[in-house]
Automatic annotation (TrEMBL):
Any one GO CC term of the record: cytoplasm
Localization per record: Cytoplasm
Limits of the CP-type G domain: 12-178
PROSITE patterns with a match to the protein in the record: G_CP
Name of the protein this chain belongs to: Ribosome biogenesis GTPase A
Function (record text): Required for a late step of 50S ribosomal subunit assembly. Has GTPase activity.
Species whose genome carries this gene: Ligilactobacillus pobuzihii
Taxonomic lineage from the root: Bacteria, Bacillati, Bacillota, Bacilli, Lactobacillales
Length: 292
């Protein structure tokens, strides 16, 4: 099976730092992308989070299929993992503060009994690159203090931010893991912009995307690229060639692939969820059964 092998040194360092900080923070916000909640979960982070209060925050819910997002929340909550979904570019993030207070209720009560009222709750925000950590924290502190950008690897080092009287928040650099055992995970991460574009072939990602949208949103695909029925039912390579031609790129297949990827990232083909909860939850249950 093809495995993408790469792991920049700064991510190894960021993982070490995250491990160190776990000892001091009260709670962790583990950010995942609502369009691919499991594929955007870094197994190494999940591993170090054992026994630490944590909340799974599904970001970019405005880009994902709302029904699937709700199913994911239900699934996580049912498996004892507190979860919320947010759009950090719009609306209130009070839901996160509420969830933090909820998860830490016992600890906060004990602090109060001991008369420690002034201690702030310290929160570390972790997740893969470009998942929206800095955007979410800026929103929570109501200031643009952390740098954000529509590409992976914007935050280079940790930064503490203060939110109101009660919270202090730690922004961290995005961390991926050294090997994607399932190549599909790498393709999903690339399509949604979590991996630097230079690290994958546009046409591989475009072909994966075509297969997905042909099945899930054929009408949108057909309308946007003015594809005939024959072009829709042709092989994915031929459909991509038709898209390239219809976009006016003649036979510049790479530009066709880039256009499709950019369009999907900009939501021109609508909201979508690449990780289906039922399939993945089913797989987990099967695995659990095998381990029993
Ligand atoms: N639509 C939408 N876009 C979001 C949301 N949250 C973040 N973004 C966008 O996602 C991009 C990445 O956001 P960042 O906050 O820089 O992501 P990050 O996780 O800090 O990334 P690194 O620092 O590179 O690890 C930016 O273009 C944000 O505007 C969201 O909830 N919805
Ligand atoms: Mg950042």
């Amino acid at each position: 099976m093809a495995v993408i092998q790469w792991y920049p040194g700064h991510m190894a360092k960021a993982l070490r730092q995250a491990k160190e900080n776990l000892k001091t923070v009260d709670i962790v916000l583990e950010l995942v992308d609502a369009r691919l909640p499991e594929s955007s979960r870094n197994p190494e982070l999940v591993n170090i989070l054992k026994n630490k209060p944590a909340i799974i925050v599904l970001t970019k819910m405005d880009l994902a299929d709302p029904k699937e997002t709700q199913r994911w929340i239900n699934y996580y909550e049912a498996t004892g993992q507190p979860a919320v979904a947010v759009d950090s570019t719009n609306g209130s993030l009070k839901v996160i503060e509420k969830k933090i207070n909820n998860v830490l209720a016992d600890k906060l009560e004990k602090r109060q009994e001991k008369g420690i009222k002034s201690k702030k709750i310290s929160v570390m925000c972790i997740g893969i690159p470009n998942v929206g950590k800095s955007t979410l924290l800026n929103h929570m502190v109501k200031k643009n203090v952390a740098s954000v950008g529509d590409k992976p690897g914007v935050t280079k080092k940790q930064q503490w931010l203060k939110a109101g009287k009660n919270l202090q928040l730690l922004d961290t650099p995005g961390i991926l893991w050294p090997k994607f055992e399932d190549p599909l995970v790498g393709q999903k991460l690339a399509l949604t912009g979590a991996i630097k574009d230079q690290l994958f072939h546009d046409d591989d990602i475009a072909l994966y995307a075509l297969e997905f949208f042909k099945e899930k949103a054929p009408q949108k695909l057909q309308e946007r690229y003015r594809l005939t029925n024959e072009e829709m039912t042709a092989s994915d390579v031929d459909t991509l060639l038709a898209i390239t031609k219809n976009a006016g790129f003649r036979d510049d297949y790479d530009r066709g692939a880039q256009r499709l990827i950019q369009d999907i990232r900009k939501q021109k083909l609508g909201r979508y969820t690449l990780d289906p909860v039922l399939q993945i939850a089913g797989r987990t249950t099967k695995k659990e059964k095998q381990n029993d």
